[in-house]
Design a protein that fits this description.
about 190 residues; mainly beta; 13-stranded parallel sheet; five-stranded parallel sheet; about 40% strand; globular
Length: about 190
């Protein structure tokens, strides 16, 4: 990529995506299509997942800039766990991890999705529907979580969000004694 912001709807990326000579490059995933990214990338301008699916074929597929999850689904391309070191903004309701066929059978994209940077919920209660295991080890702040999806959401950072935690499906695992700082409360369901 050159220094610009690119909109991508679907396809496969097998080349490394880097900043251009003019500065940072950014990517926005648009429409309901499927995008397969098989490389560890170094672009720094950020990524916005608006719609559709991104299948991550390596750690660090989405560069090093801010990862904004506005909609759609981010998932591994198989059974291998994928780690993202980006700071994350969750700006809408998102899906993370595996999907199911029309008969309720899990597909093959079971790898966990792991976020190690800070996560900003952008001032609202956000639905996180995870059908692979998902972990946030950085601080989660500025909003609340409505947990949906069948598998486990792990919160292991020193979190500061204040609008609570509602467990509708699956499980929530708390990785430290202060992960519910700031008044967040598990309202319903097993922990």
């Amino acid at each position: 990529l050159k220094a610009a912001s690119y909109a991508v709807s679907n396809g496969t990326i097998n080349a490394v995506i880097a900043d251009g000579p003019g500065g940072p490059s950014a990517m926005t995933k648009t429409t309901s299509g499927h995008l397969w990214i098989n490389t560890t990338n170094t672009y720094t301008g950020g990524t916005n997942l608006v719609d559709g699916r991104i299948y991550a074929g390596a750690d660090g597929t989405l560069g090093t800039g801010i990862l904004t999850l506005t909609g759609g689904r981010l998932m591994s391309n198989g059974a291998t766990d994928r780690t993202f070191t980006n700071d994350v903004v969750i700006a809408g309701n998102v899906g993370l991890g595996n999907t199911y066929d029309p008969w309720g059978n899990p597909q093959a994209y079971t790898g966990a999705i792991i976020f190690t940077g800070g996560t900003d919920l952008n001032g609202s209660i956000r639905t996180i529907a995870n059908d692979s295991n998902v972990g946030f080890s950085g601080t989660v702040s500025n909003g609340g979580i409505y947990k949906d999806g069948k598998l486990t959401l792990t919160l292991s950072g020193q979190n500061t969000y204040t609008l609570g935690t509602t467990l509708n499906a699956g499980k929530i695992r708390l990785g430290s004694s202060s992960t519910q700082n700031g008044g967040g409360t598990v309202i319903s369901g097993p922990v």
